[in-house]
Design a protein that fits this description.
Two copies of one chain form a homodimer.
Chain A: H1 27-55, H2 59-70, E1 75-77, H3 78-84, H4 89-101, E2 105-109, E3 117-121, H5 123-145, H6 150-170
Antiparallel strand pairs in A: 1-3, 2-3
Helix pairs in contact in A: 1-5, 2-5, 3-4
Chain A binds a DNA duplex (30 and 30 nucleotides) through residues 58, 77-79, 87-95, 97-98, 109, 113-117.
DNA sequence: AGGACTGACTTGAAACTTCAAGTACGAGCA
DNA sequence: TGCTCGTACTTGAAGTTTCAAGTCAGTCCT
């Protein structure tokens, strides 16, 4: 049974609608925002649940392992990892603690500068990543690349970058 | 300081690369996926933090209030709310419990069918939403609509819908 | 009528994230 | 040399989400 959602302004919006800096969205923008919103919520949920079911890894855990495996020495500073995983440092620190307990990474102070801490991928962590990767990649392909032709893929990339640039401008 | 990430196949991928159903991503696809991934993580984080700072609401709480306010009787079944908020029922139930404590919604059994429960927006909840909306909408506009011209907006909408359709196909 | 069954929701515990301090190292400087 | 400062990280508590049962109302079947 379908729930009705309006594309018109709710009554309580009426008075704001014309005010200078609180411009409401046009019906067309609203539609776009709804589509984007749903994608932004459901795509990570779908990818995360494939990973969780098939490999016992969360989305972010997978990308932490992937980022480490990308380095020739399988090592990164926690702060670098946090940036690559789009995560805050505190969250990452807890996460590394848990992954350390599972034997996927090791933590050590950076020998060249004691302020930093580095995480290193263990063989077992690499192995787990290697097992998880094909299934994850297949899901990325199925959900994204099979759904979009080349032009659409290009458009999405450009748009995503434009939005991220705006987000970056926000937190100076 | 920039961390180097490769756009080539990691060594451990080599043997899988040509195998039938575990096709790795092309460098071009990888770039697109990275851009989309970052957007998908950071856009909700940015919107959520604006809402949290300015109105003490999380992203999902805002959209629960918004969905309720969209109904003429300011009422929805929990399962409908869960679907509209792209959330699982259990999460929504906990969330409604907390919002009930804050006085934003009320919970009651559906008089017409005791299996359902309905949530109703309180005046205080509506008021909170009305206060929060302009700031949130302004942020949506800044991050998305100011960043994309009309064609790009249209492309994004189409692509987002195509991806969501795929996600839907996944969980039959 | 009665019994199995389904779908909607609740609940509690465990896992995870966020928030607010706190600690520690090194840089810059008196 | 010792002081102050900033940055990187850790930690614990509080808040939130997920997971696995459990409850309960109506439906279907006999």
């Amino acid at each position: 049974m379908k729930v009705q959602v309006s594309s018109r302004y709710p009554p309580w919006m009426a008075t704001r609608k014309t005010s200078r800096d609180a411009r409401w969205l046009t019906p067309d923008e609203l539609e776009t925002w709804r589509a984007l919103h749903e994608m932004v919520v459901r795509l990570p949920a779908a990818l995360g649940s494939q990973l969780q079911n098939d490999s016992g890894l969360s989305f972010i855990e997978y990308y932490v392992l992937a980022a480490l495996s990308d380095q020739t020495d399988h090592t990164l500073r926690l702060s670098q990892l946090a940036a690559l995983a789009n995560s805050e440092l505190s969250r990452l620190s807890h996460l590394i603690t848990r992954m350390e307990k599972r034997g996927f990474v090791r933590r050590a102070p950076d020998p060249s500068d004691g302020r930093f801490n580095i995480a290193t991928l263990t063989p077992s962590g690499l192995n787990h990543l290697v097992e998880a990767a094909p299934g994850h990649v297949a899901e990325v392909r199925r959900l994204i690349f099979d759904a979009l032709d080349e032009r659409a893929q290009h458009d999405v990339r450009t748009a995503a970058r434009a939005i991220v640039r705006r987000v970056d401008e926000g937190d100076l």
